[in-house]
């Protein structure tokens, strides 16, 4: 469990989701050294434009919830 802070990861899959006119991204990503991928839904304001599978990123957490995703 990641209470707060950030970790490097690689995006494995990304899907844009429109909910009542608001854009979100459903992400499947894997932290370096972890066997299981993680999933997160983040708002478009919390991620860089145009995320793609294979992108190297840094995922920030608060109370084990992904809050922002930045390109490395």
In short:
By secondary structure, this protein is mostly beta strands. The chain has strands at 4-19, 22-31, 38-43, 56-62, 65-71. The protein has one domain (4-71): OB fold (Dihydrolipoamide Acetyltransferase, E2P), CATH 2.40.50.
How many separate structural domains? 1
User: Count of DSSP helices?
Assistant: 0
- Main β-sheet, in a few words? 5 strands, antiparallel
CATH architecture: Beta Barrel
What is the count of β-strands? 5
Multimeric state of these chains? Answer: single chain
The helicity comes to: under 10%
Rg, alpha carbons:
11 Å
What would CATH call the class?
A: Mainly Beta
Mean pLDDT equals 95
What is the rounded distance between the termini?
22 Å
At the third CATH level, what is the topology name?
Answer: OB fold (Dihydrolipoamide Acetyltransferase, E2P)
Strand percent estimate: over 45%
Molecular structure report:
The protein has 72 residues and is mainly beta. It has a single domain, classed as OB fold (Dihydrolipoamide Acetyltransferase, E2P) (Beta Barrel). The chain is 0% helix and 64% strand. It has no helices and five strands. A five-stranded antiparallel beta sheet has the order 3-2-1-4-5, with no helix packed on it. A hairpin with a 6-residue loop joins strand 2 and strand 3. It is globular and about 35 Å long. The two termini are 22 Å apart.
């Amino acid at each position: 469990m990641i209470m707060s802070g950030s970790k490097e990861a690689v995006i494995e899959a990304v899907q844009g989701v429109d909910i009542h006119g608001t854009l979100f991204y459903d992400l499947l990503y894997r932290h370096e050294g972890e066997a299981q991928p993680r999933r997160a839904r983040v708002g478009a304001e919390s991620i860089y434009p145009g995320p793609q599978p294979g992108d190297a990123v840094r995922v920030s957490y608060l109370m084990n919830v992904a809050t922002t995703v930045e390109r490395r």
